[in-house]
Structure formats: C-alpha cells, structure tokens
Known about the structure:
- The protein is α/β, with parallel strands linked by helices.
- The longest helix has 17 residues.
- The site of magnesium ion (MG) has 5 residues, from α4.
Amino acid sequence: MNKVDSFQKFGNDVYEFYNLGIGDPIPVSAASRLGLGDLLDEVAKHFGTFQSEEEDDDRPRIAIVGKPNVGKSSIINQLLGENRVIVSNIAGTTRDAVDTEIVHNGTEYVFIDTAGLRRKSKIKEELERYSIIRTVTAVERADVVVVVIDAEEGVTEQDAKIAGIAHERGKGIIVAVNKWDAIEKNDKTIYEYTKKIKDTLSFMPYAEFIFISAKTGQRMSKLFELIDMVRENQTLRVATGVLNEIMTEAVALQQPPSDKGKRLRLYYMTQVAVKPPTFVIFINDKELTHFSYTRYLENKIRDAFGFKGTSLKFIYRERSGKEQ
Ligand SMILES: Nc1nc2c(ncn2[C@@H]2O[C@H](COP(=O)(O)OP(=O)(O)OP(=O)(O)O)[C@@H](O)[C@H]2O)c(=O)[nH]1
Ligand SMILES: [Mg+2]
C-alpha cells in the first residue's frame, strides 16, 4: 500500500486491505520513505538459494555462441562423441540453452549450447530478443566463450555483435572458425581469414583463434587446450612488485599524456581481481587519462604476461594527499 505518508494517521486504514484476501498488506510511503525496509525484508524472504549452487560448482563452463546454423550444436556433438544435442540444418533448431557435461583428460567441462542470434529483419523481434537473452545468460554463466563463425559465410557484423556480448562481460574468448572442411584452401587462407576477422573484431585483439571442423573433428583436442589456456589466463595474478616495475619502465619509455601543462602521474598499480584480470592504477587526476595510454600500458602488461584470450580491465583512482 503506497502513499501511507503517516503510519500514525493512516495505519489503521491498511487493515481494510485484508479484505482482498491476497495476504498481508505492507504499508509504505515512497515519498516519505516509510516501510521500505520491511517491504525489502518481505521480498528477500522469497529469494531461493539457487544461485550458490552454480557458484560452488567450479567445473569450467564454456558457452558456445554464434549465429544460427554455424555449427554450435555440431561442435558439442563432436566433442561429446555421441548425439545428445539435436542437430539439423534448419536455422534456429536450438531454442534453449542446453548444458552438456564432457570429460576430457580427466577434467569435467560443462558446455552450454545456445540458440543462434538472428538478424532482426529475418525473424520476429520477439524471438530475436529471446535469443539475445539466452545468449547473454549463457555468456554470463560461462568462464570461456567460444564464438563460432561459419567459414563458408565469412565473418559478419552479426558475429561482431555476438562477440561483443562476451567482450563486454570480460569473458575469456576463443573465436572458432567452423566448417573449415567445406572451403577451398591454400597456404594463405588461414592468414587471410585471421586478418579479416581481426578487422571485424578489432575491439578484442586479444581473442584466440582456431580453425575447426565439427564434421571431421579437425583440431577438436586443440580446442580443449585453448580453453584451458584461456581459463588460466582469466585467473592469472601478477604480483604488485612486478607490475610496478613494468609501469615504471613503461612511463620512462613513453611519457603519460598532459593537458594544459599538467601531466598525468602514475603512482602505483595493483591487480585487484581476476575473471577478467583487473588492475587499479593510482594517479593524480582522472581528467588526464587517455584510452590510448591505457592501451599502451595494457600492451606492456601483455608483452610480459600474455593474458591471451582474456580482456584486461583498468580502473583509475585518484590518490589524495599526494602533491600533484
Ligand atoms: N561442412 C560442415 N558442415 C557443418 C559443420 N558443422 C556443422 N555443419 C552443418 O551445419 C548445419 C548446422 O549445424 P548446427 O550444429 O545445427 O548449427 P547451430 O549453430 O547449432 O544452429 P542453431 O542451433 O540453429 O543456431 C548442419 O547441417 C551441420 O551438419 C562443419 O564443420 N562442416
Ligand atoms: Mg544448435
């Protein structure tokens, strides 16, 4: 019951609402901020414990995402070695995310299959939105995301959009070019494909690449190696001492940007999180930061530690009390 601006004045009126027979009325006032805590308590009572279930599960989770018909389900089938996921050549067969457990070299992996994201013009908006939500949910649950591209079709803007979902969430990313058996190749083909895809996915230069065939099984065990590597990189921690050595050296090699006579100063860097590896840099003034210098620092860190397949996140903090 909203607008109960005074419990003293209107408190008794609330009982009338029991007549509705839909449980206890909870008086609140949004304007006077009354009763909101009680309302929240009531809401929180109904929270389940479903979330912790997956948090306790430390098996690697890999989401397979991509446009319709690129071969996502086929990849999982090939990995599994038995037909447990429905495969068909009609675009949009997989409507729901499906979890498949696969044991490889004694490690248990959970693969999450998703429905392909369609371009808006092709299907009803509703279905499009549903597929996006499914993909987003799968990506959020995953440690590593395999973005599948159809070698026959080549890379498209839609692929970039799908890859962007994983990139924005800081997931480990592997770009798998599937149906590699179906195209004609010479010794330049892999190079040309890689260049084209890197151009289209230029926002994630760190992504790992693999050229596979779900049909013939080409490089499927290599895929597991990549998944393991990317997962390790997602959780890699760099010691603060080493980080600051790299930072000091980087600053000495290339001056930080300045504006109106004031120069960006970097005092200290430390890694505060993994998945994705996240670094806090203490500086004098946030206004002076520039993405190109952040990228420069990122490249220095990558030169030293690789971090292949994972994005890195940088957070700037102004350090007060320091002379500027
Ligand atoms: N030649 C070739 N065909 C493939 C390969 N992988 C999948 N296909 C074919 O591509 C079609 C689509 O495969 P699916 O695995 O159903 O594709 P999907 O990405 O799961 O499709 P949706 O679930 O509808 O989004 C099928 O006809 C497969 O046989 C491959 O590596 N080579
Ligand atoms: Mg499928």
